[in-house]
């Protein structure tokens, strides 16, 4: 019997800018962020299964940050819920229901190839959800359960209720969607157009041994602001100077240093309070380092370096010292 199989991938992200306002009544924070996809992907495969409903499985991508955490005994794939708590499962259900179907109309297996850390500030779970939306959309269509796949706007509408980062990673799964300003809670996106000769930034991502809870990092920011430990909320606007520096291509080194100067993350100080060991990586001294910053709510640290060989060298040096590190680029080449 022919087994139908569809596959989609969605990247992780870093935030090159993240200004956070004071919490709204629903607990969410208004923000202005510059999302930038990274060349590290979650892959979801949807295929025919024996069992009724939706089942899940997970594999770790060899040599990824997740693999390095796993080999160090710091990530146990058995702790990832392979049930309705999983964001990929919830994304699949959202897609199935949006198409007028129910879970029990299907015998569907979803397999996740995981490379982006869990609770790392890199939208790992959100990328699973984004890839699941796309793989299931294609699956339902090829199964002839739907007459067409969804358009981007329809996909984004399904993505937003799944989490604040999910719309961006859906967008970044498509060509030229890898750099976007996010406003509102992060779900209102404006794509930043990239010049054809745009040189991506070379970064080294350093994963921590334990994740951080995003709500806890936001709460620490709120409490610290009230207590005067962190600067008060500023203007919620991604500076045009940063966008300009990123997209100009003439003077690579000057551009990098300008980008480095304009990076900002309001969640960095609270993330460091909750995980003080991050300070060592953030203040590391090496002549190829332009700037180091926490990715999103952390604890992953992104280190902006001068070029790709420097990124490879730094990542290898960090791994030799027992850290979990990979060299990559942002925004991801599409
Ligand atoms: O939307 P998502 O489920 O990814 O968000 C996780 C948590 O992060 C939320 O429950 C909330 O506590 C916090 N958050 C926030 N403001 C945002 C985005 C996330 O407070 N704009």
From TrEMBL:
Domain GHMP kinase N-terminal residues, every copy: 86-170
Reaction catalyzed: 4-CDP-2-C-methyl-D-erythritol + ATP = 4-CDP-2-C-methyl-D-erythritol 2-phosphate + ADP + H(+)
Pathways involved: Isoprenoid biosynthesis; isopentenyl diphosphate biosynthesis via DXP pathway; isopentenyl diphosphate from 1-deoxy-D-xylulose 5-phosphate: step 3/6
Binding residue positions for ATP: 117-127
Entry EC no(s): 2.7.1.148
GO function term, MF aspect, one: ATP binding
Gene3D superfamilies documented for this protein: 3.30.230.10, GHMP kinase, C-terminal domain
A Gene Ontology BP annotation from the UniProt entry: isopentenyl diphosphate biosynthetic process, methylerythritol 4-phosphate pathway
InterPro entries according to UniProt: GHMP_kinase_C_dom, GHMP_kinase_C_sf, GHMP_kinase_N_dom, IspE, Ribosomal_Su5_D2-typ_SF, Ribsml_uS5_D2-typ_fold_subgr
Signal peptide annotation: none
Keyword Transferase carried by entry: yes
Domain GHMP kinase C-terminal residues, every copy: 256-323
Keyword annotations of the record: ATP-binding, Isoprene biosynthesis, Kinase, Nucleotide-binding, Transferase
First-tier enzyme category under EC: transferase
Active site: 13, 165
Similarity field: Belongs to the GHMP kinase family. IspE subfamily.
Function statement: Catalyzes the phosphorylation of the position 2 hydroxy group of 4-diphosphocytidyl-2C-methyl-D-erythritol.
Descriptive protein name: 4-diphosphocytidyl-2-C-methyl-D-erythritol kinase
Organism name: Rothia aeria F0474
Gene: ispE
């Amino acid at each position: 019997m022919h087994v139908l199989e569809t596959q989609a991938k969605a990247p992780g992200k870093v935030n090159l800018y993240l200004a956070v306002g004071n919490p709204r009544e629903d607990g969410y924070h208004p923000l202005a962020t510059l999302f930038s996809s990274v060349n590290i992907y979650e892959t979801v495969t949807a295929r025919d299964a024996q069992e009724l409903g939706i089942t899940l499985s997970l594999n770790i991508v060899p040599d990824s940050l997740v693999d390095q955490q796993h080999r160090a005994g710091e990530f146990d794939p058995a702790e990832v819920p392979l049930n309705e708590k999983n964001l990929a499962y919830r994304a699949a259900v959202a897609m199935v229901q949006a198409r007028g179907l129910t879970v029990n109309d299907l015998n569907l297996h979803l397999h996740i190839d995981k490379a982006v850390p869990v609770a790392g500030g890199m939208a790992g779970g959100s990328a699973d959800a984004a890839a699941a939306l796309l793989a299931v959309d294609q699956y339902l269509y090829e199964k002839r359960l739907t007459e067409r796949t969804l358009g981007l706007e329809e996909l984004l509408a399904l993505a937003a209720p799944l989490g604040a980062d999910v719309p961006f990673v859906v967008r970044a799964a498509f060509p030229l969607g890898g750099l976007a300003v996010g406003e509102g809670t992060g779900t209102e996106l404006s794509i930043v157009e990239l010049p054809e000769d745009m040189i991506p930034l070379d970064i080294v991502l350093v994963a921590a041994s334990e994740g951080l809870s995003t709500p806890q990092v936001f709460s620490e920011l709120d409490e610290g602001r009230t207590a005067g430990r962190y600067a008060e909320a500023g203007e919620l606007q991604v500076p045009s100077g940063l966008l300009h520096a990123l997209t100009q291509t003439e003077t690579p080194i000057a551009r990098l240093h300008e980008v480095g100067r304009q990076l900002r993350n309001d969640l960095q100080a609270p993330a460091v309070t909750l995980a003080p060991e991050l300070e060592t990586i953030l203040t590391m001294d090496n002549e190829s380092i332009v700037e180091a910053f926490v990715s999103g709510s952390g604890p992953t640290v992104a280190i902006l370096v001068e070029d790709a060989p420097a990124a490879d060298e730094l990542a290898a040096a960090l791994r030799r010292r027992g850290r979990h590190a990979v060299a990559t680029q942002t925004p991801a080449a599409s």
